[in-house]
Specification:
mainly alpha; Arc Repressor Mutant, subunit A; 6 helices; 75% helix; disordered N terminus
Length: 182
């Protein structure tokens, strides 16, 4: 006796997906979807959902051929690429507009930062020997205790040189129009 096993109608999409799963994956991979930051899993899910919807809503079950599956794949992948391109275009346009609006302010800020740095360095170089040395080491990342150990000075002497140096530096900066409260 011949086995005429027939898959029930409601399971037909699952069988179709199983039968064509390798083909679907290879067809998706023929597109260069990775360039558009699209995940293969997202594409597969969209294709499977579309197949289910077609079979759920269709009175007349379509003859499922490779050509029909190919149409679904092409449609899903092309739509995903178009959507990604459009999103990228929107993001690039927004970034371009942000740069255009804020670019001038950035350049001005960058220029002011350079000027401020130059004024600070000039003022620092005008400090007296050991005061400047302590401030330089502190700005290089050393703590006052480390500076005292390095120079074999007492903590009191190091603190005194540091705070006097800061006071002198603030005065020099104030003369150049730079005010700092702390």
């Amino acid at each position: 006796m011949k086995n005429n096993y027939r898959v029930p109608e409601q399971n037909y999409p699952e069988k179709l997906i199983l039968d064509f799963s390798r083909y679907i994956v290879s067809r998706i991979n023929s597109f260069e979807y990775q360039k558009y930051a699209i995940e293969q899993e997202d594409l597969l899910q969209s294709i499977y959902v579309r197949i289910y919807k077609i079979f759920k809503n269709s009175d007349k079950k379509r003859g499922c051929s490779r050509l029909y599956i190919n149409r679904i794949i092409n449609s899903v992948v092309i739509d995903a690429i178009k959507k990604s391109r459009k999103e990228t275009e929107i993001v690039n346009t927004l970034n371009h507009n942000m740069i255009a609006v804020h670019g001038h302010a950035y350049e001005k800020s960058k220029s002011q930062s350079y000027d401020l740095k130059q004024i600070l360095l000039r003022s620092l170089n005008e400090l007296k020997g050991s005061r400047r040395y302590v401030i330089d080491l502190y700005l290089s990342g050393l703590e006052l205790d480390e500076i005292a150990q390095l120079q074999k000075w007492s903590k009191g002497k190091t603190n005194n040189l540091f705070y006097r140096g800061l006071k002198d530096l603030k005065k020099r900066l104030k003369k150049r129009g730079i005010f700092h409260e702390n």
